[in-house]
């Protein structure tokens, strides 16, 4: 397992690159789980790998050799035979630049990306399969840079909304709209276009992930002291855990999913946050980004 940062000029749009490898015994499957996240382009380096995933309580689907993981409302359960995969995570701002397709159309969906990454995706996948995994970041940078070079309307607001979702003081859609300096109807449209879910749900997901990782960080002691102050009490958090995890938080912590456990440490060390959906938003305004990429 490895994580890498993208080139600096891609940081507002690409959350990072990753490499996963599993090697279960013959005739056995590796079982693991992914956190609720934004978007990821993934390329199987071992196309014969039999890989299936299920988002929350949805149906199990086979992951194609070239796949797009859309934004997820719950954990994604994974089972696969031995294999390797490399991938690139995209932020909501990255999705806004990449395609006109609504993010909501890819919510809780895993499948072939179709034309979203352009006609060169197949050739790029062939190229990346010929090099060692640690050379993948430079290839991803070169592939994604032209696809993410076209500024779009509403970038300032999407950037502001990304940052506001990470702020524990923002607890309502009204407060979110105020932070973005837009009407509630406008942020509903932005959420559908770039984030994949309604604003109220996005606030719930961010609050839950902050709390879950606070419990991860503090161990299995008194979880009530670690949860977000937006919860009325610990039982409120437990009810949310059943919605996002499908089980109580302590049971989830006890699963011991090997990739999840290791990724929490490596992702924070290499990318700055233990979850893609908790990664700091663009430090600069989108206007600064537009000026840089068009000058």
Give the helix/strand layout:
Elements: E1 2-4, E2 14-22, E3 30-34, E4 39-44, E5 51-55, E6 61-62, E7 66-69, E8 76-80, E9 83-90, H1 92-98, E10 110-111, H2 121-128, H3 136-147, H4 155-165, H5 173-180, H6 184-195, H7 199-218, H8 234-245, H9 249-255, H10 258-271, H11 286-294
Antiparallel strand pairs: 1-2, 2-9, 3-8, 4-7, 4-9, 5-6, 5-8, 7-10
Helix pairs in contact: 4-5, 7-8
Q: What is the chain-wise order of helices and strands?
A: EEEEEEEEEHEHHHHHHHHHH
Tally of structural domains: 2
- At CATH level 3, the topology of the largest domain is Jelly Rolls
Binned strand content: 15-25%
Radius of gyration: 19 Å
Q: Provide mean pLDDT, rounded.
A: 88
Shape: globular
Structural notes for this entry:
It is a single chain. The chain is α+β, with helices and mostly antiparallel strands and 295 residues long. The chain folds into 2 domains: 151 residues, Jelly Rolls (Sandwich), CATH 2.60.120; 124 residues, Orthogonal Bundle (Arc Repressor Mutant, subunit A). Helix content is 41%, strand content 17%. The protein has 11 helices and 10 strands. The strands form 2 sheets. The protein has a 6-stranded antiparallel β-sheet with strand order 1-2-9-4-7-10, sandwiched between helices.
């Amino acid at each position: 397992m490895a994580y890498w940062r993208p080139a600096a000029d891609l940081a507002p749009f690409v959350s990072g690159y990753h490499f996963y490898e599993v090697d279960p015994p013959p005739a056995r499957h590796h079982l693991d789980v992914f956190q609720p996240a934004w978007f990821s382009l993934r390329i199987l380096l071992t196309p014969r790998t039999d890989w299936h995933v299920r988002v929350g309580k949805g149906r199990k689907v086979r992951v194609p050799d070239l796949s797009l993981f859309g934004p997820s409302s719950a954990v994604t359960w994974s089972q696969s035979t031995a294999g390797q995969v490399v991938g690139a995570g995209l932020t909501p701002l990255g999705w806004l630049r990449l395609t006109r397709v609504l993010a909501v159309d890819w919510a809780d969906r895993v499948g072939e990306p179709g034309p979203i990454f352009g006609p060169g995706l197949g050739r790029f996948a062939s190229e990346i399969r010929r090099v060692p995994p640690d050379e993948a970041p430079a290839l991803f940078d070169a592939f994604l840079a032209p696809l993410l070079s076209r500024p779009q309307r509403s970038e300032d607001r999407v950037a502001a909304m990304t940052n506001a979702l990470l702020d524990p003081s923002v607890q309502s859609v009204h407060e979110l709209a105020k932070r973005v300096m837009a009407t509630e109807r406008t942020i509903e449209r932005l959420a559908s276009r770039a984030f994949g879910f309604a604003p109220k749900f996005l606030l719930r997901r961010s609050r839950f992930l902050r709390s879950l990782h606070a419990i991860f960080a503090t161990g299995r002691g008194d979880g009530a002291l670690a949860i977000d102050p937006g919860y009325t009490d610990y039982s409120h958090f437990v009810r949310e855990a059943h919605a996002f995890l499908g089980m109580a938080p302590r049971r989830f912590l006890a699963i011991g999913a090997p990739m999840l456990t290791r990724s929490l440490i490596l992702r924070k060390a290499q990318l700055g946050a233990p979850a893609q959906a908790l990664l700091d938003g663009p430090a600069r305004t989108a206007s600064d980004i537009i000026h840089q990429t068009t000058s």
